[in-house]
Amino acid sequence: MDKLIIEGGQRLVGAVSISGAKNAALPILAATLLSDDKSIIRNVPALRDMSTMLKIIRNLGVKVEQDGDEVIVEPKGYKKWKAPYDLVSTMRASICVLGPLLAKQRFAEVSFPGGCIIGPRPIDLHMKGIKALGVKVKVEKGYIIADAKGLRGGNVYLGGHFGTSVLATANTMMAATLANGVTVIENAACEPEVVDLAEFLLKMGAKIKGHSTHRIIIEGVKRLHGAEHYVIADRIEAGTYMLAAAITKGDLRLKGARLEHVVALVDKLTESGLDISESTGGFRARFIKKLRPVTITTLPYPGFPTDMQAQFMSLMAVTEGISVITEKIYPERFIHISELARMGADIILEGPNAIVKGVKYLSGAPVMASDLRASAALVLAGLVARNRTEINRVYHLDRGYEKLEDKLTKLGARVWREKEK
Ligand code: EPU
User: Fold this and answer.
1) Catalytic residue at 190?
2) In the chain, where are the structural domains located?
3) Which of 13, 116, 182, 324 is catalytic?
4) Is ligand 1 within 6 A of the CB of residue 371?
5) Contact 215/197 with Cβ under 8 angstroms?
6) Is the pTM of this model over 0.85?
């Protein structure tokens, strides 16, 4: 296993290209299964999660070719409908093949994805969505077994205890594209990744209205054709580099990133004192004055993203004063607190609220990456910490940040990978 070593204290300056969005590319690759024709997806990031999704697609008997950031999927004549445990268990997002398989094969067997380190991850909303379309579902031997012979349009309210769901919206929308009749998804997720998926489905010939709102209307069609698509830039990767600019008192230009996808983060960082402005082909995040603590609450889009909560906490950990960080999407997504504490952070957890008291400095230490975004938080902490930080189990980062060390090194960071002993 690899570990990441960071010698902190370097100010990051320069331009960085933001990769394609992992969470848009995953359901879009799954959506290629809705057609018999070839689809070409570009700007697919080179990440472990992407390899897992391509394995699942190949395992269905589909031909997949990859050339750099371009993936060509040729589903012609594939007959299988099963996503097995050994693949699904390594990536929860695998569940987004459920909708396409139901629509195309009228049957699906997908391993139950289970929970993960960021807390329980129920799938009741996925079930609710497809059941509203006439699909019969049962869970047997750890598999979701779904029969969609009676697939037809339906109305469904996708609201749960923690609001709406991104992938349940994606699954319901994909299943509805080939259903007989009209489907209305109320309280649909409107994250940019859902919108990008809808844009791809429209190119395939689907009839969809209202994506980017909380009410999506899908009129089923008889067949979808292949399409070409360029995946949007990753707003979470962009956000992480904005925080890298803030925490290292740096000046970064984020190429390819879209400011309108990170409005909540921009709002909070501006309130804190960071200077953010549009620049050619992206935007710029520049430290101009001492930052102030700000309070955040994670919410569905366009609220503050849960996927930026951990990284934001690292920034607040070294920002003088007190901030409160409330997690409303995954109330247990706080594993990073104990690792940040190892570096000298002063954070108290009270239910879903983390009370962060900014300290003068963090001190490098060996720490353990526990999940993707927690790992990114440790990288940010390492960039500003005194001395050397060793981040173990770095494979988590490889799930979501393309060429992380290369990109950081080009910006002036001292960071490299070593084999864990
Ligand atoms: N939820 C339910 N029932 C469901 C599904 C979800 O109650 O059937 C709850 C969840 O427990 C959570 C909330 O609804 O409290 C939101 O979960 P959601 O379903 O939206 O999460 P997801 O679609 O499984 C995607 C991203 C996550 C991101 C969340 C929230 C992908 C592949 N994953 O997950 O990304 O945190 O939306 O924005 O799109 C990451 O990239 O690190 C990551 C975890």
Assistant:
1) no
2) 2-19+233-419, 22-230
3) 116
4) no
5) no
6) yes
